[in-house]
Amino acid sequence: MGTTSIFVVCAIVQTAVAASTLPPWTPSADDAVAGPLPGTDAAAVNNPAIAAGRTASTPSAVPVGPRRDDDEDRVQKELPGTDAAAVNNPAIAAGDRMDPNGAPGFKPWEVGGFIDVNYAYNSNNPDNHVYRGTSVQPRTGEFSLNHVVAYIRRDAVPGRFSPLFEFAAQAGPAADALVAYEPVAGGANGKFAGPEVWKHLSRANIGFRTRHGTEVVAGLHLSPVGIGIHWSPYNWNYTVTWQLNSVPYYLSGVKLAQTIRERHQVQLWIVNGWQILADNNKAPSVMLGYTFTASERFNLGEYVWIGPEQADMRPQAWRLFSDTQFTYNTDNFGVSGLFDVGADPRTDLPLSPWQMWMNGAVFTRWRVLGEQRTWDMALRPEFFWDRDGRMFGVPQTLISAAFTNNFRVFNNLLLRLEYRYDHSTNPNGFFYRGAAIADDATGLARDQHTVFFSVAGVFAHRFGGRPS
């Protein structure tokens, strides 16, 4: 065998060995043209008959790559978008938060959102399918596309003068119920206002933060009052408290805030009123706030509300309200508590009575299994004393307890199963039952048992900023 022949044989052997170690063949763009029309699989979901020349069992034209062994590690410790959800309401966050000191490569912009689908079984089976008194899960006895939210926001870059921006759009029964009590005055005063104008807006505000921690933000804000928010995937329990349904979910106006030595913040809110975008009188209301963040695990908040919430704007008719709250939270355990008291001098009624209410709740959560893909449980007892029916229409004490199982299957998928019990001390009942679907109907129930099943898809993506 000559030298040339030896070289040829060696080249053939080397080619065979190299071929045995190559990854599976991936078609080029030209090869892919012969395949099915792009999007056929998406179009054919639940209706495979529309696909041409390809069945669900047909392998993809592009081979699927090998499974990554680090999929588990790529699941975030907290639900995507937690920081956006927790703005002005940090008690809802569970686990590690975004580095407040701004790690290298800080990305100020975020886009995100969620889809919440649920089914609720209510022991009273109301004919109108309405869960009375709540705007977060207002429908029962049916599958419901409960809430859909999409948002974009810009956070402040730590240590710099930065613009702040937030816009969130929403739809679904929870969106309609949220703005159901927006005032719509009669005549010409009813123009450009009311639920149909505002129901698709969840947040819309703009402002700035200085390098020394001064914030000025105007628009439609998440309210800091209470524990929990209207975006249910981010709360420890699926349903919210009676307390949260009695305080503002959102505020329309200006927020002024000053952070002091990183742990303290004082706030001044000047707003149209108690969860209203269109004011019900000609004067704003004022709320003062103070928060103390002792560590990433513990925070304390106090909010005091003063302002006219009826047609009479004299100081003797102003609403007075106090909200006190605390949260201790780690990856594996959390506990929160709140206590509220409020009073309205009703100068529109004979003898100008003071209508009062008071409530308290304890929130607990604990990790059962998992580090990234997790199973958590949450338990929340609550009472709400509505002495004069100012908040929920009838004099009563509402007693409630909720027990929730939270299964975080993937980074963006949350399954929830919750049992909730509610009791009203009003002798005529409070909860809708059967054909009794009017607030003053005969036959309203005093007790209510409800089971909720929810599937939530949550996403968030941060971008912008300087590379690390």
From TrEMBL:
Classification via InterPro entries: BBP2
Q: Which residues form the signal peptide?
A: 1-18
Bias class Basic and acidic residues marks the residues at 66-77
Q: Which domain of life is it from?
A: Bacteria
Report whether Signal shows up as a keyword of the record.
yes
User: What UniProt keywords are attached to this protein's entry?
Assistant: Signal
Q: Map out region (Disordered) in residue numbers.
A: 53-99
What the entry lists under Pfam families is as follows: BBP2
Q: Bias category Low complexity: which stretches?
A: 84-94
Indicate whether Transferase appears among the record's keywords. no
Give the protein name, as stated in the record.
Answer: Outer membrane beta-barrel protein
